[in-house]
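Meet today's protein:

…
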Amino acid sequence: MRAAMSDAGSVPRGRHAPPLEVRQDRQRRRLNEAAAKVFARVGYADATAESIAREAGMSKATFYEHFDNKEDCILALFDAATETLIGAMTTAAQGDGSRRMTPSERYRESAGALLATVAEHRDYAQTLLVEIIGAGPRAMQRRDAVLLAFAQYIDARNAEDAQAGLVARLPALEDSIAIVGGIFELLSRHVRLSEPAEVRELVPVVERLFAGQLAAAAAA
């Protein structure tokens, strides 16, 4: 999301213009930012290619140079948002490199990074968590794949911790899917209803989701 929103200014023209691929990348970023705003403001169903292009200060023809239709646009936006969220979590889980974090510390840092990114980019978060649900079968397939990717990331980290004797091994991938599903629902509720008002209040709740699944695994 951060990368998708950066460098959205006007592009120089004439002999000082950047290469074509740079201009196209900047255009796409501007269109992504505009689409996020339009989807958040009016919803996916009422958004149009024209309204997105207008929000970006571009022509509708430019929109269609980058996307086949608004479904293609929301899928691209969804992918950009997902990449940023996973990147933020992965970076936070690595720490500063001075020492190896405990599993609890890593869960806390990852959750904090995830929630901070959502707080910083509410329009993108609404696309990722809410608008994508009404965007058709392809969008739902993409959402399911992303949920699975988050779950597989959690499962892989748990496998490493369990092998090191630090935590219990979760019995099945579905345990990680349950954690991710809970997190997605908490974030969706925050974006839609502003409950809780401050998204960072969810950090201890997310920690308890992890702790509960791990405690159940240890007791099994």
